Amino acid sequence: MTPTNPRPSVGMAFALATTASFAALDTLTQLLASSATVAMMLFARYLVQSLLHLATDLPQRGLSLFRARRPGLQVGRALALALTNLFAVMSLQHIPVGQFTAIVMLTPMAMTLVAALFWREQVPGLGWVLMASGFAGVLLVVRPGQGATLGWTLLLPLGTLAAGTVFQLLTARAAATDAPGTTNLWTAGIGTVLSGLAVLHGGWQPLSPGAWALLAGVALFNATGQVCLLQAYRHARAATVAPLLYTQLVFAALAGWWWLGQAPAALAWLGMALIAFSGIASGHLSRRA
């Protein structure tokens, strides 16, 4: 992706703001898990995101903003993101923020695996080694059998990873057919409708003023992260931005430690470093291919 207003240092700052915002989003989601329903949290995120896209894109493009060349693809992408968000919120009801983030950070490597197995794309030997090391990093973070994260709860972040991988692959297809504003609005709009229906059909419960504040924070940090990510790519090359996105591992671990008392073990820090190294090296390898 070519930056439209090249200022690398500004782009890097926005990339860090992106990861900090998403780490705060996940932490607030976990804090809110005992007060608000999953449907309410998803609706707040989608509604604010939809309003944001309408406010920024509709004045420039008018009704053409709503026209998609491949509506089926847009619906599929929206459903994939809806599943990703659903699994993410459910994961954060059971799993520490740092562990959840570590698993989800495998998404770029999972995309490489899917492309190799189903699209027959060539992956060099080093690429397979990096995927294996990334998986080893997750094992160091999660440490099956050594903590509270056991059994079926591990399926939730794995569901997030699987749905997120499908979402990213469909995003690549959608980018070739429709403008980003159209794609983002379709995704946010469909998510708003689906989560709104879930709220109306048993997904509502009264909240305390403190819980309402947390819910507003969830919507705010989600929107802030989306805006900052777009600004990061506007000011810096993808090769500059992508490695910085792994700082979400650090922000998530620190946020979980500070707000939730979830102090990562020494092996968890080592695992996060291994995931970040594997992801950055894998991205560099794919750009050279």
UniProtKB/TrEMBL annotation:
Domain EamA: 11-142, 154-277
Residue ranges crossing the lipid bilayer per the database entry: 75-94, 100-119, 126-144, 150-172, 184-204, 210-229, 241-260, 266-285
Protein name (record): DMT family transporter
UniProt keyword terms in alphabetical order: Membrane, Signal, Transmembrane, Transmembrane helix
Secretion signal, residue range per the UniProt entry: 1-23
Pfam families, sorted: EamA
GO CC terms of this entry: membrane
Keyword Transmembrane helix recorded: yes
